[in-house]
């Protein structure tokens, strides 16, 4: 269906669109069209009384006129008005009382009656058409890579094509809405290539068995930078801050380090050998202590390290990517707080590919060389003379002449450093994917006698298609493979192509959720699949498969037990990450990072991932401990690490790992609206807008999205000088009648959040431009009080939070709708209202925790039917 | 006949790795055949944060306008480009930064399904027209891609991930693959074709089991399969054709250089790609100015600068970046001008070079009145072509009208492109 102007679509809500579609009369061939339900005459009276004074052919406020509707209320052309009316009444936004005008308002009873009547009418209209059904849904990129991992036991990065799939389109935060998905040449091309690349990786151990695991220990002298190898050339000052090898070679000190992982250290012999020998799991161990964190140079800025010194362990993709200062292709696996003056061994287990080079670096050591110059200037003037005399030493001979400095560094200099005693790399071990086919399975396939190849294909395709597959169905793959074998191909090559065709088939790429002929209810395998992709973003595991085979999963009791098991399982982290992105739009976090000079902590303390983790940990706790879902609106706890605690200006004993923190009754961080993740994602890194944050609250917490802005509204240009506050600018904007109507509904939901800056930092004043620099908290005072459209005065953040708590009905409805959409790839239509109401009323009667609500969503007909 | 071209020698260009003169079959045969017109090229360049309107748009109309500050690097070309004002995507591509990805299509990704060709961008429409005539139907490039940018979209509604590495681009264009690699590619190709045969049958079987709505989706799958089959056979034809040799080397560590340095290298490669007819359609995102590695000496980040609040010092710093973008564009155009095509015209004349932004004014996140400038391409350029105030917000002001004009010039026989109403009035062929 093509709209004359696509802009029309943005004028209303999803409900409107569905009602329009539903009303589109499409009588099937030979069948008489079912009569359209007639609109209640009381509604026409209601419209004449309360609406048409402002919305008629002459006044036409908001581009809406009801004259045509009043003349012929049952004309299908007016259905969109009916849907809009219901939205406006539900949201309580119309009719609107205006100061100085005496607008006639309906009584609460009249409003409720109208809502009931309109809801019924729209339901009847929707029922004219076929009920909404799930469309064929394609695996999202995340699901695709997870599925390959859990099917073939491969490392997802083993396929370049799979790692660079064209991005999924997000609509309403969701990537899995079937109606919005597409398949293109680019995508198809990636699928065909990725299937081959993954199968190459899966069969690789059959052709080249994994080499025996070794444990290789590297001495301090073997740890070097890739880009500036030791001795080749070093600048004295650099060397001093950077690194110092003990005279007896018993340790190496790192004096400098970057949060960006620039200039990491790595085991030189391993780099020269071209990295680790094979794909597999490796353990990296580092023996380390922190020294001189308490140092005598407190008078010199930046030598103080407030938090523990931190060691990062990671790897580079190959030995070229260690020869550059900075490379975004390097991976940091984990970061550890290193104890002061106490040797410890830290260890990381990681999947690596052949050629990867393990590396380490200090995350928060002193940056740059200027600091140490200053230390030397103020504390060791005699050294300064020596250094100034000759700054660089480029040969071994020079190195000897530099001995006094090296001695000085080892014996006298007391700046904070990481002291590394050894680094160990152990592996490779097979990849631990308990659910996937193993290399033994692939070896079995590769050597299966010709007569059994049919069984091999049945076994492989059944797992890949997530349901039992017949011999007939795999015949084309089998015949191809046999023909290849007859033509002289090796069995591995022939199988790879046959398997790749299975993995590029629509039966693999699309989820089988039945079709209109198989009936409404999903069968056991379809249900197992939907459930598994909902909570784990991957294909069903053995237990789900077995329950499906036994026909047990459609039993609600068993289904509930499975939900409990799956939520408790580690793999539910896919749901926690995926759903918070979709629901809270955390996918937007990081798309507009703040300015480095204005918000240095954002980068130095790696706040972006920390913010995300706070929200995910709170979400996980509400889920796994089955807490009241309203905890999302107001909670007495959160999770923080050292960086985020600093950002929040909260005292306590924090480290790299997150810990649970109790929040006082007056804490601004209670509830999701106090999370820096959301406050950053709803700003643009530079300034904040109550409009955007207001829309965020309405859209994502209350589920009452405002209509899109009318075309051609002049945008508001914030005043960077700080002479005018955003409130004053918005008031100017709202002085225009046309703008006021909408903004009176939006801005009040954003103003209380103005106490948070663009990275969610608390503030009492706006920034101001001083001497060519942006200074935080120097500008006009922040005012966060406001009046909601209902007339309720909001004094501050706490009252706002209280108000949101009172809107728990809106909140719960939206949360349930989002869970259903995320779980099925289909957004609710008016047809689903009864089902959603049932979930909500049961949940509220039984004061259900979040996990119970989730279970109720999963046992609902909405979820169990196509 | 050849004008000076500092980094390239025409002779080495024509010498393939094996010393056989077959590197430029199309160009050469064109020259020998008594020179039909050179093939049309299209280059689209988009800036994430655009240009300060007052410094980009001239005040006067037509040819006799006073050069605004940002157009000064193009002064010597002023009768060979058209700077347009008043064009935008109307109500269809609003959304501030989130509207930018519609720059070349006029259609937001979220609205794509309401259009028969989704939100296909002008470059990809042109690329589809080129087909297998060149080794690469198009190149989509970015110094460092920005998630909000996504300049290039296909007719199936998916964005094309840009290539971010200079070295990778250079290798794609000029690196001769060794026989083993070509052999591997050929085997992958044959296998892929077998895979596509099998999945076609699978899709047909599935199509018979599902209802009408789902059948459409299966059909879309089958269409992609057929398109891929065609693409594979086309790229198969290129496997045995040696890549052209370029008398050009990227400096060591090119991909680690600053944004300023890299942008120049990107333009070098673009000119070479066009000159060697490796592709006829190139899209470049001007994005990825990171503070640490920009090469500019700035008091704050690019995005922060774009929120200039009309503070003169901040505007001045912002101007440094914007002026750099225009100066490098001018340098690129000069380079195209220095290349003589076999048919007698210059590469500049054969190439429509468009620079613009999806933001009309980054400071207010406006998607109205987009800065757009089209150079070369064989048009009778109109100086400053402005949509009159009273025609703005009408279908005459749709930027897609310009794209329709460009596509027709490119050789497509079409009379509409996405939201377009007609070709752009006032921009005629030379």
Could you walk me through the main structural features you see in this protein, from its secondary elements to its overall organization?
The complex is a heterodimer of chains A (866) and B (430). The radius of gyration of chain A is 32 Å and the shape is flat. Helix content of chain A is 42%, strand content 11%. Chain A is of the alpha+beta class and 866 residues long. Chain A contains 35 helices and 21 strands. In chain A, strand 5 and strand 6 form a beta hairpin. In chain A, the strands form eight sheets. In chain A, strands 2, 5, 6, 8, 11 and 14 form a six-stranded antiparallel sheet that branches. A three-stranded antiparallel sheet of chain A has the order 10-9-12, with no helix packed on it. Chain A starts with 13 loop residues before the first helix and ends with a helix. Chain B has 430 residues and is of the alpha/beta class. Helix content of chain B is 37%, strand content 10%. Chain B contains twelve helices and nine strands. Chain B has helices spanning 10-14, 25-32, 53-56, 122-130, 166-174, 179-209, 212-239, 259-275, 302-306, 312-337, 347-350, 399-410, and strands at 41-47, 81-85, 139-141, 281-286, 351-357, 372-376, 379-380, 383-386, 428-429. In chain B, the strands form two sheets. Chain B has a seven-stranded mixed sheet with strand order 3-4-1-5-6-2-8, with helices on both faces. A two-stranded antiparallel sheet of chain B has the order 7-9. The longest helix of chain B has 31 residues, at 179-209. The two termini of chain B are 23 Å apart. Chains A and B meet through helix 8, helix 17, helix 18 and helix 19 of A and helix 6 and helix 7 of B.
